[in-house]
Write the structure tokens for this entry.
Amino acid sequence: MLYLILTLPIFIVLLSSIVIIIRLKLYRPDGKYGRKGIFFSIMVGVLLISTCGAVSYLLSDLGIVSSLAGRSTPRPTPLAGQQPGQIPVIEVIVALQAIERGSVFVQGSIGPRSWPANNVPPDIIADETETIGKVARHHMVPGQVIVRDMLIDVGQLRFFPAPAVADGIAYFGRIDGILYALDSKTGQELWRFQVEQQVFSTPAVAEGNLYVVDGDGNLYALEAKTGQELWRIMSVNKKYKLEPASPIVVDGVVYFANRSDGYFYAVNAQTGQEIWRYNQVGTAIIADGRVYFMLGDKLSTMLDLKTGQAIDLQTDAEN
């Protein structure tokens, strides 16, 4: 309707032109000047319709059409002091200095900065108070924009793993992703090892090797005395963020739940080669050649320890 109102005057001009054509005898019933008249009429019509479309486009681009229709065309609003035509900016929180993984955010280490609105990462933080007291999940460089996924709320952490002690050495991991080995009598640091993510689970020690799972479900095998890495298994499909679980070593096989991809694995303790996997995570108990998964206080799944095949609970109970 609005389009017709704006173009009605142009159609009136078109009709007037046709009348003029007839009065000037450019179009006559006897056909003497008929072809010229028709050609002239078509040209005038095409010209006026094109003009109509161009005018409507210009009015729409200028916002006049939207204003007449009761709508406003959304446009970025420049901040104070910003020149027209410049890219709009918004305020974000960035690191003002290098922040190590596992460090606590304190006043002065972060601050607000103006950032181009067309290049802002998702889930940004605009309020500095949201970061104070939180722990850095990753290492950050000065000027890096901080998003919520980079923060760990210490108050929400429910997992404080106990150390593993073997042959006079205590092994434990921290929220900064560092695994430590200390002399259990003196507390002297013997070695440390950096993993990819936080360590929330207790390491396992077996036959001179140390096994630990980090927060992303990655499994690491180290020499227990030196901390030298033997092998690692990296989680590829990180779909879940579930509570961590400590690895279990039985008869040269490491069993662990990858809480990122939702599978329970059995791998060779010396090489890291996968033996089997099962689509199940939860509290696992190994006994009598079987893996038992608990759901709350009830047994939910039972697997054969060697093959990873599920065992029917009802059939097993009858036997």
